[in-house]
């Protein structure tokens, strides 16, 4: 019998995943593994909504600001590191929490990554030249033509993922999506997935409020300090690229902030699209009490034992 249980908390940005995961960690007396890829980098705090120092004190967190934007850290690296960390945690506790809004990183831990063929160096170099000359929209259109299935599910504003998919498509003459249908890996722990959501207007209102708070807390100062490194992939993300445009004189500040809100709302929509394809997730409204969710988790755990 498998005695260890990983409780996975997912949902759109700004829905309250951090708060719930801390409450669950306190109840089960366990630790939290973050699967939010934007929160890995120590130079990025305000714009990625890293848990506050008070929240970090309430429960032990792992994979929060443990890397630099100057380091290469792939989802494959995260899968290996996260599984090793969970093995360590389960050596002394039957429970652990995995929390995050990065669907691919959650899947890496719960299902395992698919394996891909090697990419030809000349293909990668050519795509980098095309991106520099033509921009991301050109690459998005190319991906739509070569692999419409993956185009519909990927974050098309994530340059790294678009280029990665195109590398595979061009190198193999096969759609990238054809390599992501492999059987999931077996894990040495039970997995119970909890999804937190709300009606769309509520989600959008919470996002708008969060962005306003970020600006009040010093988002502009944080982004300005990172301006010399704006070409790094880690900084090609919502909340940073819009302020870079403001600093470059492309947009005024009010418009840049409105774009952060708009792009974050779009990001939340993509998150929900990703997670709703996973039939293993048990969904709860964001105002559901912790006690009710704990009761359901215990029921789910018992059912998995039967």
UniProtKB/TrEMBL annotation:
Question: What does the record give as EC number?
Answer: 2.5.1.75
Signal peptide (residue range): none
Please list the residues that bind substrate.
13-18
Keyword field = ATP-binding, Magnesium, Nucleotide-binding, Transferase, tRNA processing
Please tell me whether the keyword tRNA processing is annotated for this protein.
Answer: yes
Q: Which residues of this UniProt protein bind ATP? A: 11-18
Q: Which InterPro entries match?
A: Dimethylallyltransferase (IPR039657), IPT (IPR018022), P-loop_NTPase (IPR027417)
Enzyme class name: transferase
- Hey, where's the site called Interaction with substrate tRNA on this chain? 102, 124
Q: Which residues form a coiled coil?
A: none
Gene3D superfamilies reported in the protein's UniProt record: 1.10.20.140, P-loop containing nucleotide triphosphate hydrolases (3.40.50.300)
Q: Does the keyword Manganese apply?
A: no
Region Interaction with substrate tRNA: list its residue ranges.
36-39
> So which cofactors does this thing need?
Mg(2+)
Catalyzed reaction equations? adenosine(37) in tRNA + dimethylallyl diphosphate = N(6)-dimethylallyladenosine(37) in tRNA + diphosphate
Q: Where are the transmembrane segments?
A: none
By sequence similarity, the record places it as follows: Belongs to the IPP transferase family.
Its quaternary organisation is:
Monomer.
Q: What does this protein do?
A: Catalyzes the transfer of a dimethylallyl group onto the adenine at position 37 in tRNAs that read codons beginning with uridine, leading to the formation of N6-(dimethylallyl)adenosine (i(6)A).
Under NCBIfam families, the record lists:
miaA
Protein name in the entry = tRNA dimethylallyltransferase
């Amino acid at each position: 019998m498998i005695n260890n249980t990983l409780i996975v908390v997912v949902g759109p940005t700004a829905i309250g995943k951090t708060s719930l995961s801390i409450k669950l960690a306190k109840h089960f007396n366990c630790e939290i593994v973050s699967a939010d890829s934007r929160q890995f980098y120590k130079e990025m705090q305000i714009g990625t909504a890293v848990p506050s120092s008070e929240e970090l004190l309430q429960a032990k967190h792992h994979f929060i600001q443990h890397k630099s934007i100057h380091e290469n850290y792939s989802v494959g690296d995260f899968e290996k590191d996260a599984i090793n960390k969970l093995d360590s945690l389960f050596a002394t506790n039957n429970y652990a929490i995995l929390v995050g809004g990065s669907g691919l990183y959650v899947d890496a831990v719960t299902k395992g990554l698919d394996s891909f063929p090697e990419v030809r160096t000349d293909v990668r170099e050519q795509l980098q030249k095309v991106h520099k000359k033509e921009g991301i929209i050109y690459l998005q259109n190319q991906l739509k033509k070569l692999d419409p299935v993956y185009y519909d599910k990927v974050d098309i504003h994530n340059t790294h993922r678009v280029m990665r998919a195109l590398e595979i498509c061009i190198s193999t003459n096969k759609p990238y999506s054809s390599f992501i249908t492999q059987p999931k890996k077996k894990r040495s722990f039970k997995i119970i997935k909890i999804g937190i959501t709300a009606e769309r207007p509520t989600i959008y209102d919470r996002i708008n409020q969060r962005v306003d708070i970020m600006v009040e807390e010093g988002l502009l100062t944080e982004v300005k300090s990172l301006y010399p490194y704006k070409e790094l992939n880690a900084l090609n993300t919502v909340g940073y690229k819009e302020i870079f445009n403001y600093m470059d004189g492309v947009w005024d500040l009010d418009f840049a902030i409105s774009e952060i809100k708009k792009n974050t709302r779009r990001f939340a929509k993509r998150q929900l699209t990703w997670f709703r394809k996973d039939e293993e997730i048990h969904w709860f409204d964001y105002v559901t009490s912790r006690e009710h969710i704990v009761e359901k988790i215990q029921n789910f755990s018992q059912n998995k034992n039967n």
